[in-house]
Design a protein that fits this description.
The protein is α+β, with helices and mostly antiparallel strands. The chain has 9 helices and 14 strands. It holds the Pfam family DUF6925.
Length: about 325
């Protein structure tokens, strides 16, 4: 069994490992930007750069869930480890209005600890999604609108936030992610900046879900943080890259330790059948989303490891030629 604390410590030293905290529709992500100075370690399970930072405060009672998700691109797959707590222990403030929380005394950097933290009032189960600022002009607007929903018609607070670009802070029972960069929008060319960034998507927020349906989180558990070890086929900027056997093997170890047995069992069965030269006719299509994802990812991974063959083409034609509607995830599981 992999040691979670050691795994997280190692991940915080690896530039290609990404981190996130949030919910389905509101998420803060921390990524190292290639070519920049290495992140500054603040504690065994924390680091910060000029763009943002992450800290894991608690591992007691945490259940890691490793999983792979289908990509819409048939030569790829995504991967993540969700850090989960039992639902009753994961709940946060669930505030529905903009709320002044006072100075952020637990901020990652000392220079931010006197700045004022405001809960945005997104009412998400496992995350208090906040902004933090010492800007007096923005503070005046936020304090005047405290107690109102940011989405209420005529509320000037959201426009002021988008103009001022305060820090964003995602707080969970496991820790925090902080983003210092500008909010993606007109001031960033309409795209999220490279490295740490946030997404707040009102349409997804209305679903009131704690996580994507493609993340196999056990019933009764809630993901409060996640990390994404180096992907063997996808680079840091989402680009294709040559197959990386070491990265693949590393995550397969986490999957064996912390992955759903249903998923790993199907993958093992497919790999054994291909190694034995068996035709696909003897393999029934799994009835569940998770099982189908395992079968299709097993085929994709076999091709990247071993190359193509007439036998593999027959398996793909039967199980992964056109995809199965609703089974694909994007390339950032957990978001």
């Amino acid at each position: 069994m992999a040691d979670l604390h050691i795994c997280l410590e190692q991940g915080l030293t690896q530039a290609e490992t990404g981190w996130n905290m949030g919910s389905f529709g509101a998420i803060a992500e921390f990524h190292h930007v290639a070519g920049e100075a290495p992140p500054t370690p603040l504690a065994p399970l924390a680091q910060v750069t000029q763009r943002g930072g992450v800290r894991i405060d608690r591992l007691e009672g945490v259940r890691p869930v490793a999983y792979e998700a289908l990509s819409p691109r048939s030569h790829r797959w995504s991967q993540a480890v969700a850090l989960c707590l039992p639902a009753p222990g994961a709940v946060m403030g669930q505030r529905r209005v903009l709320t002044d929380l006072g100075p952020d005394s637990a901020a990652l950097r000392p220079q931010d600890q006197d700045a004022i933290l405001f809960d945005m009032g997104l009412a998400q189960y496992q995350v208090d999604f906040c902004i933090r600022t010492a800007d007096e002009e923005l503070l005046a607007v936020l304090r005047a609108q405290a107690g109102r929903s940011l989405f209420e018609p005529g509320n000037p607070a959201m426009a002021a936030i988008l103009k001022a670009h305060p820090h964003r802070v995602a707080l969970t029972r496991i820790g925090r992610v902080e983003v210092f960069q500008k909010i993606g929008g007109p001031d960033t060319g309409g795209v999220s900046p490279e490295g740490p960034h946030t997404h707040v998507l009102p349409k997804l927020l209305r679903a009131k879900r704690t996580h994507s349906a493609n993340a196999p989180i056990p019933e009764g558990w809630v993901p409060c943080a996640g990390f994404h070890p180096a992907n063997p086929v996808i680079g840091p900027m989402g680009e294709d890259k040559p197959f990386d056997p070491a990265a693949f093997a590393a995550f397969q170890g986490l999957l064996a330790a912390w992955g759903p047995i249903e998923y790993t069992g199907v993958k093992s069965a497919v790999a054994a059948a291909l190694a034995a030269g068996q035709m696909p006719d003897g393999m029934p299509e799994p009835a569940t989303r998770l099982g189908r994802a395992a079968l299709r990812n097993a085929l994709r991974q076999w091709r990247r490891q071993h190359g193509g063959s007439a036998l593999l083409d027959q398996w793909v034609a039967r199980f992964d030629a056109a995809g199965t509607a609703g089974d694909e995830e994007d390339d950032a599981p957990g978001d």
